[in-house]
Inverse folding.
């Protein structure tokens, strides 16, 4: 098994080394310095290998650190309960979620696909070797942080050490259950497509993790010890069963289809992604269009993509209304809740940048625009004329803004109502700023995604992303929005800044599109 | 009318794909473009279609002895893999295409007449393009490129996905329309090239050359073509 592991590790490493060299080549200046025969260049290989191994090591720790920071430490301040126990409480319930959602073994990744399907390696040996490696990573990755944060919160030493093993035990138990299930049903589970039951359990665990501490119900060291000992024993039992399981090959054959594998590989999948996009097209004979030219073309696009356009925002709207109603009911029950919401509305407007980012449909819509429309249309010269490009751009911008405006205006108005019901404010301007800034954010995201798409059109004819700038801008957008979560600023000043920023950004980017899009909006070669 | 290519050069990194292309294509002829895998046929088409920038050289149209640059409407490019907007029906696609091209289309026909011309069955005309077979998508792609009536048609392996009957239909169709167009046709199938094309041009080592048939019979001509393709 060790041999299998070494081979598979080398395989993964080669793949990663080549990706590193490939991405180095994407930078304009470096591209010129690097030799053509760079994939066999020894020095470069060694350099990429060092980076690859660093990435491997960083991956082990950074992921775990971020997980504990973002999911536990940052929210701890919300609770007034005993800190040590709250930490253990949230960690325990999140571990249940993680156990279900992240099994490692059932994740259809490219390296598994290459090794098992293409190179025909022994599925059991490969699966187990990499599974054990992952589990060891879990222990090594978590241990320093459970100890550091454990010391911060005065958690007993043995629990600090037990926590990583608890994670492993839960993963083993879930894995064993899934393997048993496979023997019975012959249906393999793809962990990236969790069933409704799994989602429900995850949702319940999340609620238990974050809501129970609010009402002062948390597990303590004794209860944790009890849960841990049971899980540990079951975990060892599961480990034996997993080790002796013999149908890995059949299982992987089901999971590692090209469709599954490419669906998960960072959106660069070609055919699978195309298939996914095609599924979004609906033909309803009743939906035709009376318009003509670009408007006709775009109108049909919108009507045939209701699933990701209008239907999706309607669903959002319903959920938003429910949440607002729930909060208003909360007001009646608990007066403290009222003051904290009032405080949030007047201090934490930046948080809503992230919420508006998550709700905005533009990113997936522009992707569908490419996959189902521009991918083919851009091969026609006539479609690349400035007149056509800008004509369709205008139609698209209108649609994107209008569609995203429905949930945005609900949130804007809803927040203003909440502000009023939670005790109001002396400065009337706050109401106005809440509504307008939320709407401005929504318009900003709609403009942003569409403009980025038109200025950086990142795909080639095989629907692969060929622009590192585009990826960078996307990642940057995410990080900036995420960073906003932690910012606390008075609603009026932040809101007004935001409104001005959105207006300026939209104006500038529209000018850029009109100037440059006819040149930039084409298939990458 | 002539399409003239002069000193066209294109390299990728240090690899010179098109070294020095000089050629003059004439109206009324179908040119069979042959070349080995990776010879640069698609690169050549991409250059002419202005999908990629050339490193140096130029290409232009000569009409009544005056030189003029190539406009958008001059070129139709049919790719080997058909690309059609899958969310539209065949009819809707044609409608849109005709609407945005209206000013350029001479003797506009009805949509059904176009379908008849391309032999697309009435049952298929109102289906979504995503449910069309590969060959049917190819027909649609060819059709919209012909409707716009470009002076130059670039066809990249266009007949390989058709069944024998349709391929024969398409060959006839190309022969019918060739008198008003310059048609450049890339293929790997020698028989097709000999059967359909008026001239055979070979892209080898980054240079484009015509292979003269002279008085050779088909067998000798084939041998000559293979010999020039093999030339190192």
């Amino acid at each position: 098994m060790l041999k299998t592991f070494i081979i598979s590790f080398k395989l993964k490493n080669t793949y990663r080394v080549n990706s590193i060299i490939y991405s180095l080549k994407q930078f304009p200046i470096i591209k010129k310095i690097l030799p053509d025969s760079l994939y066999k260049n020894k020095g470069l290989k060694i350099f990429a290998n060092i980076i690859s191994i660093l990435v491997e090591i960083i991956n082990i720790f950074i992921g775990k650190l971020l997980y504990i920071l973002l999911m536990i430490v940052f929210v701890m301040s919300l609770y007034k309960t005993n800190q040590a126990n709250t930490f253990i409480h949230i960690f325990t319930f999140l571990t249940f979620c993680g156990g279900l959602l992240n099994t490692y073994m059932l994740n259809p990744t490219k390296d598994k696909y290459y090794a098992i399907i293409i190179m025909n390696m022994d599925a059991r040996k490969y699966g187990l070797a990499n599974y054990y490696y992952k589990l060891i990573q879990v222990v090594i990755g978590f241990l320093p942080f459970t100890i550091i944060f454990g010391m911060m919160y005065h958690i007993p030493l043995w629990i600090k050490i037990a926590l990583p093993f608890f994670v492993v035990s839960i993963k083993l138990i879930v894995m064993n259950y899934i393997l048993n299930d496979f023997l019975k049903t012959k249906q393999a589970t793809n962990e990236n497509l969790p069933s409704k039951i799994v989602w429900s359990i995850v949702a319940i665990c999340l609620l238990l993790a974050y809501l129970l501490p609010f009402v002062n119900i948390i597990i303590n060291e004794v209860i944790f010890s009890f849960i841990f000992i049971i899980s540990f024993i079951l975990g060892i039992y599961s480990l034996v069963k997993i080790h002796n399981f013999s149908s890995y090959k059949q299982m992987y054959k089901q999971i590692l289809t090209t469709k599954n594998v490419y669906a998960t590989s960072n959106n660069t999948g070609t055919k699978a992604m195309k298939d996914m996009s095609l599924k979004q097209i609906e033909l309803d004979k009743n939906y035709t269009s009376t318009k003509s030219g670009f408007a006709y073309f775009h109108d049909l696009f919108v009507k045939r993509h209701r699933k990701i356009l209008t239907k999706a925002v309607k669903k959002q709207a319903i959920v938003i209304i429910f949440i607002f109603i729930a909060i208003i009911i909360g007001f009646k029950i608990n007066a403290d809740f009222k003051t904290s919401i009032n405080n949030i509305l007047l201090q934490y407007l930046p948080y809503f940048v992230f919420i508006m980012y998550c709700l905005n449909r533009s990113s997936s819509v522009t992707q569908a625009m490419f996959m189902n429309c521009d991918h083919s249309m851009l091969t026609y010269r006539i479609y690349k004329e400035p007149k056509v490009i800008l004509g369709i751009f205008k139609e698209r911008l209108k649609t994107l803004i209008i569609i995203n405006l429905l949930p945005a205006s609900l949130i804007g108005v809803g927040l203003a109502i909440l502000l009023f019901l939670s005790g109001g404010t002396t400065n009337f301007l706050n109401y106005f700023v809440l509504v307008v800034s939320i709407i401005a954010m929504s318009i900003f995201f709609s403009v942003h995604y569409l403009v980025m798409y038109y200025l950086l059109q990142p795909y080639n004819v095989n629907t692969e992303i060929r622009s590192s700038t585009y990826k960078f801008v996307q990642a940057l957008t995410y990080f900036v929005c995420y960073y906003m979560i932690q910012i606390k600023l008075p609603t009026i000043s932040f809101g007004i800044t935001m409104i001005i920023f959105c207006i300026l950004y939209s104006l500038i980017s529209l000018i850029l599109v009109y100037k440059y899009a006819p040149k930039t909006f084409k298939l990458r070669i | 009318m002539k399409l003239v290519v002069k000193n066209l050069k294109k390299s990728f990194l240090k690899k010179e794909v098109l070294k020095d292309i000089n050629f003059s294509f004439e109206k009324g002829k179908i040119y069979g473009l042959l070349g080995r895998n990776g010879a640069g046929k698609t690169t050549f088409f991409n250059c002419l279609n202005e999908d990629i920038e050339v490193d140096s050289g130029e290409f232009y149209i000569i009409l009544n002895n005056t030189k003029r640059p190539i406009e958008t409407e001059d070129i139709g490019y049919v790719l080997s893999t058909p690309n059609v907007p899958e969310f539209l029906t065949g009819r809707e696609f044609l409608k849109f295409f005709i609407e945005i091209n209206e000013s350029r289309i001479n003797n506009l026909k009805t949509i059904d007449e176009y379908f008849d011309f391309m032999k697309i069955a009435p049952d298929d005309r109102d289906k979504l393009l995503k449910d069309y077979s590969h060959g049917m998508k190819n027909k649609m792609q060819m059709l919209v490129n012909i409707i716009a009536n470009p002076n130059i048609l670039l066809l990249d392996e266009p007949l390989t996905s058709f069944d024998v009957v349709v391929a024969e239909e398409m060959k006839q169709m190309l022969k019918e329309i060739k008198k008003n167009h310059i048609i450049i046709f890339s293929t790997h199938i020698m028989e097709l090239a000999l059967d359909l094309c008026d001239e055979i041009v070979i892209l080898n080592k980054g240079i484009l050359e015509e292979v003269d048939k002279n008085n050779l019979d088909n067998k000798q001509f084939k041998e000559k073509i293979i010999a020039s393709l093999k030339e190192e």
The interface with chain A takes residues 13-15, 46, 49, 51-52, 72-73, 75-77, 79, 81, 83-89, 92, 95-97, 99-101, 128, 130, 144-145, 148, 150 of chain B (CB under 8 Å). Chain B has a mean pLDDT of 87.
